Amino acid sequence: MKSFTYERATSVEAATKAAAAHDAARFIAGGTNLLDLMKLEIETPTHLIDVNTLGLDTIEATSEGGLRIGALVRNSDLAADERVRRDYGLLSRALLAGASGQLRNKATTAGNLLQRTRCPYFYDTNQPCNKRQPGSGCSAIDGFSRQLGIVGISSSCIATHPSDMAIAMRVLDAVVETVGSDGAKRSIPIADFHRLPGDTPHIETELKKGEIITAVVLPKPIGGKQIYRKVRDRASYAFALISVGAVIQPDGTGRVAVGGVAHKPWRLDAADEDLPSGAGRVTRRLLLDAQPTEHNAYKVKLVERTLGAVLAEAKG
Amino acid sequence: MASAATVAASGVASKARAQQAEVPAGAKIGIPAGETSSVSFKVNGQDQTLSVDNRTTLLDALREHLHLTGTKKGCDHGQCGACTVMVDGRRINSCLSLAIMHEGDEVVTIEGLGEPGKLHPMQAAFVKHDGYQCGYCTPGQICSSVAVLEEIKAGMPSHVTGDLTAKVAFSLEEIRERMSGNLCRCGAYSNIVDAIADVAGRPA
């Protein structure tokens, strides 16, 4: 691990200013992803700003009937919150499908959105990777790509976003609230928060230098059957090969997002509209532009079958 | 046997402590000023103040600075659970947490749960049910097990909880899911589940 200076943030304003003032500063909250990457020298911040001192750890009702989830609410607390379990079951299910009990106790709501890909070539510092070292090339495209993306990919990067929580947030139309280093507040719809790789896969979100997430807001509950189905190599404690998050209403309409296939939670309006027509049609819509490799072509069929199982469960 | 080993280990520890006192932390290996910090927290009920390189994980602070070597380093990347300790009553991977981020926290390690002659019920159950082979993952397994039973008691749901709105009930399936962050290369899993079920007051 490279050495770094450290400060405990005293306010959101001070934190954003400090982050903007340093060339290579990082906020640290749970640290479960950042410290792992720092040990491997994939992340090499010269200054860490500990934001655990900022509060931002409560879940409050909004005047619109939704919930405002503080950026520092731990994944285990969010999953266990009574209102989330009752009204946003999809979110609890997605959180509980991710990581381990120990990690969920540290990992935060904002940090979960900002976690980096688990692409094996991003982790292997002996291999080129455009995300780790812009311009060096992508080892994954002609490499071992079984776990990697099939849609929204580019010739620079086929990494996937590893979060389960983000899939639920996308289905629930969450909004990410931020404060910039100039003090300006922004509300970024989750649909726009994560970027596709294009030719700048190292830029993963819309956040600007020094900008900090303060909360994630859920709109009022939409009811329906809320199901998160994750398919992975082990029964527990493994990243998704693919996952399906859905809210299905009694009349068969609803919303669906897919994880493990793209650089962001993958959801399309046209696919949502096709939900009453069944899994085959929805999958064809969702993965219309898919360009799978030889190793991950299985994901197309796996999405269709998993969605089929989700729709059957919603009916039953 | 166990007590002889303890005496030997504590002898080494006090020698190491004496050496450490003569050299200011960091000076020996040339860490630039501003890249070490002071932190105070409680470990197993005792106040501790350390001056450490900012990079020191909680795990390394416990093992290398406080000589509490019960907590083990397995993968050092949050994948195996051997380093599990309790901080403010919650289990975490001490390898994925910086020591300097624990100002004012209360840490409990395997040494704080119990000791020879005064075992924690979970330690006694692991012995009774042979819940280990080589023993390397055991301190993490035991810290995690104690926390798992508390999490179920507090009504925290898991991936295998059937109804999110109902009261969470103890089951072997719940134990297996909740312990998935603790790996055992010897494969003592079935006896580990038996030990936890025993402490929970349920037949395995």
Explain what the structure shows.
The complex is a heterodimer of chains A (316) and B (204). Chain A has 316 residues and is α+β, with helices and mostly antiparallel strands. Helices cover 30% and strands 18% of the residues of chain A. In chain A, strands 4-5-8-6-7 form a five-stranded antiparallel sheet. In chain A, helix 5 packs antiparallel against helix 9 and helix 12 crosses helix 13. The radius of gyration of chain A is 19 Å and the shape is globular. In chain B, strand 1 and strand 2 form a beta hairpin. Chain B is built from seven helices and five strands; from the N terminus they run H-E-E-H-E-E-E-H-H-H-H-H. A five-stranded mixed sheet of chain B has the order 2-1-5-3-4, sandwiched between helices. Chain B is globular and about 55 Å long. By secondary structure, chain B is α+β, with helices and mostly antiparallel strands. In chain B, helix 4 crosses helix 7. At the A-B interface, strand 1, helix 2, helix 3, helix 5 and helix 6 of A face strand 4, helix 5 and helix 6 of B.
What keywords describe this structure?
heterodimer, A: 316 residues, alpha+beta, five-stranded antiparallel beta sheet, three-stranded parallel beta sheet, 13 helices, 11 strands, B: 204 residues, Ubiquitin-like (UB roll), DNA polymerase, domain 1, 37% helix, globular, disordered N terminus
Rg of chain A from C-alpha positions?
Answer: 19 Å
In one word, what is the shape of chain B? globular
Number of helices of chain B: 7
SSE order of chain B, one letter for each helix or strand: HEEHEEEHHHHH
What is the residue-averaged pLDDT of chain A?
Answer: 98
DSSP strand count of chain A = 11
Total domains of chain B: 2
CATH level-two architecture of the largest domain in chain B: Orthogonal Bundle
